[in-house]
Write a structure and sequence with these properties.
By secondary structure, this protein is α/β, with parallel strands linked by helices. About 55% of the residues lie in helices and about 20% in strands. The strands form three sheets. It has a four-stranded mixed β-sheet with strand order 7-8-9-10, covered by helices on one side. Strands 1-2-3 form a three-stranded mixed β-sheet, covered by helices on one side. The protein is rod-shaped, with a radius of gyration of 41 Å.
Length: about 475
Amino acid sequence: MHSHNGHSHGGHSHEKQSVALISMGASAALAVAKFLAALFTGSLGILSEAIHSLIDFGATILTYLALRVSDRPADDQHHYGHAKIESVAALVETGLLFLTTAWICWEAIRRLLGEESHEVEVTWWAVAIIAGSIIIDYNRARALKRVAQKTSSEALEADALHFSSDMWSSAVVLAGLGAVWAGVPAADSIAALMVSAFIAHAGWDLGARTVNTLLDTAPAGATGIVRGLVNDVHGVLALKSIRLRPAGATMFASIVVEVARTMPIDEIVRTKDAITAAVQERFPNADITVTANPVALDSETVFQKVMLIASRRNLAIHHLNAQQIGGRLAISFDLEVDGSMPMGEAHDKATGLEEAIRAELGRDVEVESHIEPQPGRMLQGHDAAMDITGEVSAALLQLAAAHPRLSGVHQVRLRRNEEGLFLHYHCRCSPSDTVEQIHDAIDRVEAALKDRFPGIRRVIAHAEPLGTEPHAL
């Protein structure tokens, strides 16, 4: 997800376009001044600088137009936005830099070899123009670099590189003019070659970065950082893939992880959110997509597999049993369906679930299901009459007292609704007894109670280990 809100994005867009417009005006003024100086002095060094500034002017126009396009939001045809137009603009600027370098080198070598003779006239105002251009280049390079770093704009970074190289090459030209004035005519051509070296170096660095962006090269070191962040998130079994690609100020990240298929859906969502939060904290400008693929674990039990299959089919089961009968696995369970559902439809659901279990556990697995109605509506009940409540309570206390594993029966409540009597009670048990042992004891008490009172539909018992606080109602 994008970390920028609409206001900040709009502010960045305005700032980028403003600094590009100012740079455009500066490039135009410098180009005109240097061409005039070159015309009146005959200096190849100044002419090379003039051509350099003219190309810079064209590049700033290109940058401005690219920025206006790159700031457009994503649409149906450009799902990742338009930011890469800045990279295209930067690549064109790189080509212009190399063309400038080639022409200047050609002309300088011709003069040094004597194929073309030019007398250079050094004037104070030509020196003043070059000195002034150094000051302008310095200020523009700083302003462009600041906004480029703030907005991650490749096009503005390219412009900053242009002005920075202009500043140093102008200094070389100024030194060349000083050497010509001191009686070394070849210094002008040598200065021009040195300017070409500055331009070529700048163009090479810019071109390498631009090509990396166009080829979707991940930011340096980002893959390792993201891998470490993802692997540290609880619930991630394995990181299957990371795909990172820069586009302007945004780094698009596609992350695929594996999670246990027994993990609840809400926990999977929390795991994905944790991954997104961890990566975005480290890379605030990241647009992150996380895919979680559920996978089976070797440690899954038969019970987990059957419950998962039922859950995926949105079916409720209970009393799940698994047995080994002569080396063959046998599964049985109660399947809850809407009580008003036609039996034919209910049977189809049971058959589908049984087939899905065989497909998972093996075709030779024996699967049996018992279909029963599930509570599908809210029952309207009330406390039972005092006489029946007293009888049932007395019988409960007697039966529980006769069982060695149960004691301290309390909070006895008997309710009546249209389905019959519902008995609720709490009791005490030893904390060292197993759940199976206590459940068996409670079942025995329930069966005896139902024998004495056929109107009891359900008995709900809550067992509390001795030494714990009573369960609050």
